[in-house]
Amino acid sequence: MSKKRRQVKKSTARRRTTSRKRAISRTAAPSARGALAVATSARQTVRARVAAMADATLAVVDDDQALQSMLAVLRDRKEPIKVRLAALASLQAASFSVVAFESCRTDYTATLRAVMDDPNAELRQRVLGLLMRDKDGAAQKRLIAGLESPAKALVPPEKALQLLGYDPHADAYRLARKIVKDPPNETAKREALRLLGADSSARPVFEKILRDKKEAPEYRRISASALHAIAPDVLQKHAREIVLDSSESEDLQAASLTAIAQFGDADTISGDAELMKRVGRMRSGASTKVKQTAKRLLTKYGQ
Amino acid sequence: MVVEIQINNSADARSRYLTWAPSACRVRVTDPTGVPAPVVNLRLSGTSTAGGGQVQFRQGSTGTFANSILLNVPTNGTSVSFFATGRFGFPSRSDRDVTIEARRGNTVVGSVQVMVRIRKNANTLTTGERDRLVAAFAQLNNQGTGRFADFRDMHTAVASAQAHGAKGFLPWHRVYILDLERELQNIDPSVSLPYWRFDQAAPNIFTRDFLGVSDNLGTVLFSPTNPLQFWVTDGVQGINRRPFFNTAAAPGGGLLTEAQTIALGTAYPAFRTMEGNPHGSAHVSFGGSISSIPTAARDPLFFLLHCNVDRLWAKWQKQNGRFNPAVAASFDSAAAPIGHNLPDSMWPWNGITGGTRPPTAPGGALAVSPCVSAPGTQPRVQQALDYQGTLNAAAQLGFDYDDVRF
């Protein structure tokens, strides 16, 4: 489609939706329009503009021109970053008024994509989050590219992995496995494990980490949580063994007891004399969190 | 002599829950042994455990409530009606912490344990209340494939026009959180959905033992004793939530306070602008799932946020007397998409798909309550307004807020 045709189509759609918006949404209160004037005026102080942004939300859902002026603030790299972040928040709040906002969504998404490369890391991160929660293909490609070539990264690897979790798929799993094996930092490994939790073929990875006492308790607990989703019976088996193993860490014992108490099969647990005896001893153990979960389990099973 | 007391006119133990709205109850003699007279004089009163809920009574459908009432009950087994209610300001803390007793003279001839089950400020829950809520949520979510998945699927981009951007926003979300609350109560009947009062500091919510603590990346961390560590939605583990404010304080950032929200206007069209601020502003006071419609319901905090939105509506309704759909100012007569008008049935509970409705209707009918019959399994917008049964006792939805009187 030519650029001119696209513009005509867009303009027609805007006219149509503007009249629809009038029917749906009452005219913005004068206070909202006043707030918008302050929020978008370069003559005002940063503080005043940021303060006005929340009140301007109503004007944004009510008026195309207001929306465009807010998008212009967000796009403009010369604007103070605090004002741009507040403009983004105001647009986000407006986006919750779906019916009224829907006609603006194309422009909104286009602006977010334009800001994806912004020099400001915080703005980049927030915008990428918004796009990924809408499963935006362009944002996803850029995140994958950044994980493959760190020079192209828009955000640190741990953030990229976290954001890819909004729409996990094979490419992301492949990169997450690579990072689990050779992590650039501890948080990236954690986020890679969380992402892999959506991949049912990763069960062996989680079983290995869960039972490896040399792994950090945080990774082991993530593995327990992932197994709960992928193979709940397998988690219950490991959780029982961890509870019975007195050399296990308190965190893992507490997490295992929680998994058993919350999700275990009632008949299996109440009939497991060895487990119940061990949990009975844990009730008077040293760690508060272990005692607490042991007590909870015993109460649930009437002991 | 033995007397049976039925709460919410039911012998079902699951119906023994009260709110601030009057519950229809009845008492009857099941064993008249030792009473030769055709009628026996009984006194009904409530006794509570320390810090427990308190109840009040009245015989008819009007009049004031008292701490006890005298009833003349036939010994032939015929039931006598009365009404019971929670005493405002004295909700229960745990299940069955109030006992309603029937006495003949000084002798207890019948009793029933009840709970004054009220939605409370999440920041002030007891440890027991908090732990029961968290456990029920975790159970509902179970492996991300439990019943919670339906609630997740109800609040997505494709379905958002049913629930947002028009006058049905408040009624739809009232029914949505009621549906969730009833499912939580099917797991643990002592649970009620608490609210996150986002215009006040709520440090007790953002702890590892409750809804978690966010690290710098926005990954929410839980204690090893918290079952929410096993939270899964859409196949993905955990919760992403990055607060843009100090969670020891209120969000700020221009977010309207309770007083400012209620002062938006006395007619519904003005009040419902709260969908932007404070509702939208509260959502975007975080990064992460809760800040976007398609993913907001991945975070259990979402339901506490919406419980507060609903509480603000309830408070506004109470202050302005806006329970009656027939009163213009109670709602909005302007044209609106289907699903937003008073007589419209609400998706997904109506099961209607395609056309102007989303392509699927996850979750099926609305969960039923053993305590109340409204709003039925396929609610309409107008049924969300009279939630306390102020105009019609049969319309009450079976919930109340700790700071909104009947």
Q: How is this structure best described in words?
A:
The complex is a heterodimer of chains A (303) and B (406). Chain A is built from 19 helices and no strands. With 303 residues, chain A is mainly alpha-helical. Chain A folds into three domains: 10-115, no CATH class; 116-196; 199-303. In chain A, helix 7 packs across helix 8, helix 14 packs antiparallel against helix 15 and helix 16 runs parallel beside helix 19. The longest helix of chain A has 22 residues, at 3-24. The radius of gyration of chain A is 26 Å and the shape is elongated. Residues 1-28 of chain A have low confidence and may be disordered. With 406 residues, chain B is of the alpha+beta class. Chain B folds into two domains: 2-116, Immunoglobulin-like (Sandwich); 122-395, Di-copper center containing domain from catechol oxidase (di-copper center containing domain from catechol oxidase). Chain B has helices at 127-141, 148-154, 169-187, 258-262, 268-271, 276-283, 293-296, 301-320, and strands at 2-6, 17-18, 23-31, 39-48, 55-58, 68-74, 80-86, 98-104, 107-116, 213-214, 220-221, 232-233, 236-237, 241-243, 286-288. In chain B, the strands form five sheets. A five-stranded mixed β-sheet of chain B has the order 2-9-8-4-6, with no helix packed on it. In chain B, a hairpin with a 2-residue loop joins strand 8 (98-104) and strand 9 (107-116). Chain B is globular. Classes of the chains: A mainly alpha (303), B alpha+beta (406). Chains A and B meet through helix 3, helix 5, helix 6, helix 8 and helix 10 of A and helix 1, strand 13, helix 6 and helix 7 of B.
